Amino acid sequence: MPLTILVVDDDLGTRLSISDYLELSGYSVITANDGQEALTMVEAYHPDLIVTDIVMPRMNGYELVRRVRQQPPFRLLPVILLTARTRTQERILGYQSGCDLYLPKPFELEELAAAIRNLLERSQIIQSEYRFSQKDNLGSPLPSKIVESHHSVFTHVEKSHLLSSLTPREQEVLEMLTHGLSNIEIGHQLHLSPRTVEKYVSSLLRKTATSNRAELVRFAITHGLVE
């Protein structure tokens, strides 16, 4: 069964060119005209990846990603932001909203397809590991448990060590990140400035060896660092 990709763009030409190319590449593609329609389609179709523009009517791409990340089933859903905006601050906003990749326009369809393949492969690995861990937790035959006991002990020790390296404030910020909150929203709840929140996020990225917020959230959820 082909993987499903949601393409969101208010420009019909862009939407069609991307969807046609992806369908020829073997994906199942659904499309939306704006963020509001896309949010409804995410809940209805549970796509495997989203490709979305930023500047759109009713709901822009930043808000779409933020709203998607607030829903537990879609916290790990890969998202690519497409935009003609290339300023550093705008790219930062994209990553803060929870996107996995920021691809500036104009772009080559081959580059987009390569990025999609990479994100989907990583997503499949993460989901497989999660299902495997869930199966383990539900119980498996004794021989399998014995074989994996050393790995389980190591994982527990590694998790405990990492948790002990996080300050209470970093743990609070990490928990809020997994709920899709922005720096401003986290700052309001913790009575911190957005710049201070960003410093905590940078520290979390360094301690978990992740490169962006999306990877950090995945890491935290996969390794049980958050409730």
From TrEMBL:
<dbReference type="Pfam" id="PF00196">
    <property type="entry name" value="GerE"/>
</dbReference>
<keyword id="KW-0597">Phosphoprotein</keyword>
<keyword id="KW-0805">Transcription regulation</keyword>
<protein>
    <submittedName>
        <fullName>Response regulator transcription factor</fullName>
    </submittedName>
</protein>
<dbReference type="InterPro" id="IPR011006">
    <property type="entry name" value="CheY-like_superfamily"/>
</dbReference>
<keyword id="KW-0238">DNA-binding</keyword>
<dbReference type="InterPro" id="IPR001789">
    <property type="entry name" value="Sig_transdc_resp-reg_receiver"/>
</dbReference>
<feature type="modified residue" description="4-aspartylphosphate">
    <location>
        <position position="53"/>
    </location>
</feature>
<feature type="domain" description="HTH luxR-type">
    <location>
        <begin position="159"/>
        <end position="224"/>
    </location>
</feature>
<keyword id="KW-0804">Transcription</keyword>
<dbReference type="Pfam" id="PF00072">
    <property type="entry name" value="Response_reg"/>
</dbReference>
<dbReference type="InterPro" id="IPR039420">
    <property type="entry name" value="WalR-like"/>
</dbReference>
<feature type="domain" description="Response regulatory">
    <location>
        <begin position="4"/>
        <end position="120"/>
    </location>
</feature>
<dbReference type="InterPro" id="IPR000792">
    <property type="entry name" value="Tscrpt_reg_LuxR_C"/>
</dbReference>
<dbReference type="InterPro" id="IPR016032">
    <property type="entry name" value="Sig_transdc_resp-reg_C-effctor"/>
</dbReference>
<dbReference type="InterPro" id="IPR036388">
    <property type="entry name" value="WH-like_DNA-bd_sf"/>
</dbReference>
